[in-house]
Amino acid sequence: MSQDTAAVWFRRDLRLDDNTALYHALQSGLPVVPVFIFDKHILDELPEKDARVSFIHEQIHSLQKFLAEAGSSMVVKYGFPEEIWPELVDTYHIKKLYINHDFEPYAKKRDQEIEAILSEKGASTHFFRDHVLFEKEEILSNSDKPYTVFTPYGKKWRASLNQDRLRSFPSETLMEHFFSSTSVSIPSLEEMGFNPSDIPIPPSIFDKDIIRIYDEKRNFPAQKGTTRLGIHLRFGTISIRKLARVAVDLNDTYLNELIWREFYMQILWNFPHVVLGPFRPQYAEIPWNENEEMFQKWCDGKTGFPLVDAGMRELNETGYMHNRVRMLTASFLVKDLLINWQWGERYFAEKLLDFELASNNGGWQWAAGSGTDAAPYFRIFNPESQMKKFDPALHYVRKWVPEFGTPLYPRPVVDHKEARLKTLSVFKEVLSNR
C-alpha cells in the first residue's frame, strides 16, 4: 500500500465514543488505522488467569465488531511496542500517531520511546487529555505548585470546572474516516499465555438511582450503594466526561470521589517517587513486621476480625472490595499487624479489577499515614466499631464469612488495643526523631 495514514493507539481508552485522541485522528484528513498492542512488558508480569486481561480481550473483540461494520479493522498485535511500531509505520505508511496521555511511570517512558522512534521515521506523535478532566499541572496553587493536600486541590478543581471541560468529543460520528480494511485476526488469550477468567465484570451502566443517593448508602458494604464503574474508568470503556456530567447533576459526594481520583493522578505525575516508597520520606524508617505467615492470613481473610476477613474474601473471589472495607483492611494490615503498606499495595494491585496505580498507591499511603493526607499517623480504624457502624446486621460479614460465630472461625490474630498501642509507640519513636 502507498496511501499515507494516521494511527490511533488504544491503551486505557477502549471505546469509540467520546475518545479525544480518536476524535482528533478522525479529523486529521488521513484515513485512520486503529491499533491495540497486548504489551509483553505488562503482560509478562501478570498471572496466567487474570480477569483484567480477559476483560480487555473481550473489549477488543467488541471494538472489532463495530469497526467491521464501518468497513475497517483494529490492528491487534502481541509483543513489545518498541518492536511493533517501526513495522506498523512502514506497513501502513503512518504519518501521524494519536495517543491519549497515560501518567504511569512505565507508560511515560514507553511513550517517549515510541515518539522518538516515529520521529526518526518522519512521523509525528500527538498527545491528548482523555481519562481525567484536569491533568498534570493544570490545577496548581496560587504559588504555581502542585497541591499535596486534597481539600484545597478539590476547591480549586471545582472552581476551574466549566462546560468546556465536560464537553464530549464525538468521535463516534466520524466513523467513515477509518482506514478501509477487512477484519484482522486478534491473538487469542491462549496464544499470549493466558486462560479465560470466570470472574464477572460489572456492567458499564451509569446507574443514576445509585448515584443520586450515593452519599446515603456508599458506606454500607451490604447495600447496593456504589456504581462499580472502577474497571471501566481504568480501561476507558466509559467516558469520564459523560460520568462527570451525571455526577454534577445528581450527587456532589459522587463527584468528590471523581476529584479524589484526579488528585491522586496529579500526585503520581508530579511526585513519581511515590511508586517506590512513601510520599513523606521519614516513613521509610518505620521498622515493619516482616511476618509472612501473618500477611498470608490477612490475604486469605483468616485474621479473626470478621469485617476485615469478609473484605479480603470478597476481593479474592470477585476482584472487588467495597471502599469502606478497603480502608479498614488497609488500616488493619499497617496499623494492627505493623506490616509494610507496600505488601498490601502489591496484593491489591494483583487482585483488584479496578486497579489503578495512582489511586491504589494513594489509598495505601493514606492508610499508612505516609502520603499526602494531613491527618497524623495515629488514625487507626477499630475493626469492631467499624463493623457495628457499617454492617450492624452482619449481612456482609455472613455472606463472605459463613463460619463466623462457629468454632470453625479463627481466633483474632492480635489484640486490637495492644496492637494499636504498639503501633503508636513505633511510629512516634521514629517520627519524633525526624
Q: Please, could you describe this protein's structure?
A:
The chain is of the alpha/beta class and 434 residues long. It is 47% helix and 7% strand. It contains 20 helices and 5 strands. The protein has helices at 20-26, 40-43, 51-69, 81-92, 105-120, 150-160, 163-166, 208-212, 214-217, 230-234, 240-250, 252-270, 292-300, 306-318, 323-336, 341-351, 357-368, 383-390, 395-400, 416-431, and strands spanning 5-10, 32-39, 75-79, 94-100, 124-128. Strands 3-2-1-4-5 form a 5-stranded parallel sheet, sandwiched between helices. It is globular and about 75 Å long.
Q: What structural class do the secondary elements suggest?
A: alpha/beta
User: With helices defined by DSSP (H or I, 4 residues minimum), what is the helix count?
Assistant: 20
Provide the succession of SSEs. Answer: EHEHHEHEHEHHHHHHHHHHHHHHH
**SS elements, strand count:** 5
The fraction of residues assigned to DSSP E strands is 5-15%
The share of residues in helices is 40-55%
Spatial shape: globular
Average the pLDDT over all residues and give the rounded result: 96
Strand adjacency order, main sheet: 3-2-1-4-5
The main β sheet shows up as:
5 strands, parallel
Tell me the span between the first and last alpha carbons: 65 Å
Unreliable stretches, pLDDT < 50, 5 or more residues?
Answer: none
Whole-angstrom Rg: 23 Å
